Amino acid sequence: MTSIFVEPEVALGDLRTARIHLAETVTRVERTLATLPAPGARTPEQREQASAGHDEARTLRVRFLERYAEQVYDELTGGRSRHLRLAELVEAAAYAFAGLVPTPAQLAEEWSRPQADKEGREIDQGIFLRAILRSAPAGRHLMDAMLRPTPRALQLLDEFRRTGVLETEAVRMERRDGVARLTMSRSECLNAEDEQQVDDMETAVDLALLDPEVRVGLVRGGVMTHPRYQGRRVFSAGINLKRISAGEITLTGFLLRRELGYLHKLVRGLHDDRPGRWRPPVEKPWVAAVDTFAIGGGAQLLLVFDHVLAASDAHLSLPAAQEGIVPGAANFRLGRVAGARLARQVILGGRRILATDPEAGLLVDEVVAPQELDDAVERAVARISGDAVVANRRMLNVAEEPLDEFRAYMAEFALEQALRIHAGDVIDKVGRFAGRTG
User: Fold this and answer.
1) Whole-model pTM?
2) Contacts 24+ apart (CB under 8 A), 6-9
3) What is the pLDDT of residues 48-67, one digit of tens each?
4) Cα separations (Å) of 109 from 119, 213, 432?
5) Per residue in 96-118, pLDDT tens?
6) What is the pLDDT of residues 292-312, one digit of tens each?
7) Which of 103, 120, 272, 352 could form a disulfide with 422 if both were Cys (CB 3.0 to 4.6 A apart)?
8) Bridge partner list, 368
9) Distance separating alpha carbons of residues 206 and 170, to the nearest angstrom
10) First to last CA, the chain
């Protein structure tokens, strides 16, 4: 493919000229891609041709956003007067800036394919979101949008306040004695995470934060029906590799929404900018109890809790590097919690931490015999629900996880994870896993 890429000094003289040039370049690249077979059926020469086209378009997108990211974001959000969540933002960008991100039609086609047969269009979303998050004004505004309660949670709030019960496909939550007891209940797949799990978890976290009768949140895995662990509680097996292989794990619906949505809400609570509202965000302390294991995303989750208990026969691990992906914000948080050396052993080397290992004390606050965990949990939620806990946890989080440092990490994660989820080694690994399990 012959490149006609124009250097940015010429192509990006002003926003109007730049967006026309971007649209024309991407249109030409798309015409070439349309002549090729689906990605999984391409010859080496055709793959090289497609790669050259994508590289040309992506280079121009990067240069465009380096200059205009804040202007683009302001146009999409009405001068930051509208708070668009991730999926809403990339959809708005697709309509307003031709060629900047994939169109809804392109994404629908992409998501209908298994991972091995995708074009990798979410990489273009990653380029866009990295640029937005790198910008302090735009990135902070986007993160603020993601800290607002979801429409689904607002719709369910009155019923939850009345009944104290939430029942969803992946989560059950019951308010009892001032405690929002959230149980991850994907019993058939060991609470392996997918987009449904992320949606249900964010809904539950929102409701717990919005309900004034809730003083503290508790997260625990439910009793499993999986043959290997039938009748036992399990915290989480991490990301659902079978869903990755099937092409059902998306950048905005899972990989970024999870980190900037419910996990970030566990840390910073809900944003509230109602007129006259001067108090800090609504936040509450959270306790986690680990039965059997917390693998991958389950171990990542523990890093945002205020108090973590584990049964003495449980273990923790972050095998994302072995799977080929980045373990969410664990690379940002684990070193701060456990130290740089242990973080590298766990993330890069795949070291598994047993609850009885001395190093487990860096990740878990209490280790008790499995039969004693229920009682220990009740003592913990009572202990952490004091009047001054919220103020002090807020100040600890301000010191330990500054917002702009987290934003900078998530900017790079947006593109890095998009690249990894479409990498050949990941596709091979998750394909083999899916073949073994199903």
Assistant:
1) 0.94
2) 8/63, 8/64, 8/67
3) 999 999 999 999 999 999 99
4) 10, 45, 24
5) 999 999 999 999 999 999 999 99
6) 999 999 999 999 999 999 999
7) 120
8) 311
9) 15
10) 40
